[in-house]
Amino acid sequence: MDTAPARGRPRDPAVDERIVRAAVEELAGTGAAAFSLNSVALRAGVAKRSIYSRWPNRETLITAALQSLSVGLAPPRTGTLSGDLDALFDQIAETLSEPRQSILARYAAELSAHPEQYAVFQRDVIDQAMAVIEDALVDARRRGEIRGDAPLPLAAEVFVSAIFGRSGYARHTPSGDFPQMKDGLIALTMNALRADGTPAR
Amino acid sequence: MDTAPARGRPRDPAVDERIVRAAVEELAGTGAAAFSLNSVALRAGVAKRSIYSRWPNRETLITAALQSLSVGLAPPRTGTLSGDLDALFDQIAETLSEPRQSILARYAAELSAHPEQYAVFQRDVIDQAMAVIEDALVDARRRGEIRGDAPLPLAAEVFVSAIFGRSGYARHTPSGDFPQMKDGLIALTMNALRADGTPAR
Questions:
Q1: For chain B, how are helix, strand and coil distributed in percent, rounded to 5?
Q2: Mean pLDDT of each 10-residue bin along chain B, 201 residues long
Q3: Which of A107, A170, A192 has the CB atom closest to B192's CB atom?
Q4: Residue B11, pLDDT score
Q5: Cβ–Cβ of B108/A108 closer than 8 Å?
Q6: Longest C-alpha distance within chain B, in Å?
Q7: Which CATH number fits domain A81-193: 2.40.50, 2.70.98, 1.10.760, 1.10.357?
Q8: Per-domain residue ranges for chain B?
Q9: Of B166, B155, B196, B138, which Cα lies nearest the Cα of A188?
Q10: What is the pLDDT confidence band of residue A44, given thresholds at 50, 70 and 90?
């Protein structure tokens, strides 16, 4: 009975949004393995059939919740590599605020059990961050700021991993938090890739 | 009744070991939040009182399980930075095999709820990896292989984060798996820190 769609009645977008937000909370607090539609209905203050009338099963609702977290990093195109990396560092660090931070951590823990659901999240959060960094590196190579043979995809991955690592595993390192890491990571990255080999500082 | 210690009877180290191994499995499969002594007793094939006679509560057993995963990375002292980083990359990648990989991922997900338990794991796995890398970098600076003012703690953190990131978040990047990443990451790190600014390759 619960699964009968409410045909003919127009959907209320505010309810859609409330359910998706509740699903995000459930993912961050519980994860995909124990994700419960009953709990989502409670969090959203709706009947379970209101969920089923919109998303036929938990998998489709989880996917919708993950997609709602997509951040849309934008290439800053400041005209210099240091300017671009500075702007992108802030954008990526912002990406790692809650609830994304918790979901990302659970994603790593539950990946092997839920590969299809989290592939969406990987694409929208992690792969996109790496792609937009690589884009900035390609621009810099075109301007002659970095060596022609510099390994750009790897450098982009390392840059993103360093930020993700600091936000997760390395939270309590002596070198402190994000703002303190930023300048050092940018200088390190530029030194690693520079055309003329001169240290950036 | 269950909690009465088996006084006077000598402890069997094989049972200790079986319980700790079962606790590690429970941490990897379930995490600390839902860690259950009943489930550990089942996994180990022992009575619950056999656990309580050794560890007074779940927290002490969890700590013992995490400590059993300590890896003891050793400074390789090959005489060159590239040799040291090559050996340490392999050691750290080996660290990230199961069950450590799963526990590390859960650690990131559950950190805020269980800070004291996981502090042990962070110290024995993550901080130790960073410290031994930094050690190799200090040796290299002494040999004149890298600049005097190179930011060694940050470089060590970025090196470790890149390996952790590849094992977790970035598993499916086009650049592939660990062996394919190793040479590139070492060259990138050396270029970032070199004394004379000449690309390493």
A1: 65, 0, 35
A2: 51 89 90 89 95 92 84 89 95 80 72 70 80 96 94 94 78 58 94 71 45
A3: A192
A4: 74
A5: yes
A6: 71
A7: 1.10.357
A8: 13-67, 81-193
A9: B155
A10: very high
SS3 B36: coil
In DSSP notation, A44-56 reads: HT--HHHHHTT-S
Residue A83 structure tokens: 């300017």
Residue A36's pLDDT is 93
- Hey, how many other C-beta atoms are within 10 angstroms of the C-beta on A6? 12
Q: How many CB pairs (< 8 A) connect A and B?
A: 139
Tokens of A199: 């240290």
> In B, which residues are within 8 Å of A155 by CB distance?
188
**CA torsion, ordered B110, B113, B117, B122, to nearest 10 deg:** 50
CB A119 within 8 A of CB A107: no
pLDDT, mean of residues A51-74: 87
Confidence of residue A136 (pLDDT cuts 50, 70, 90): very high
Q: What top-level class would CATH report for the domain B13-67? A: mainly alpha
Residue A167 has pLDDT above 90, yes or no: no
Q: Are B188 and A122 within 8 A, CB to CB?
A: no
Query: 3-state SS string over A162-201?
Result: HHHHHHCCCCCCCCCCHHHHHHHHHHHHHHHHECCCCCCC
Which of the residues B161, B163, B172, B180 would you substitute to probe the A interface, choosing the one with the greatest number of A C-beta atoms within 10 Å? B161
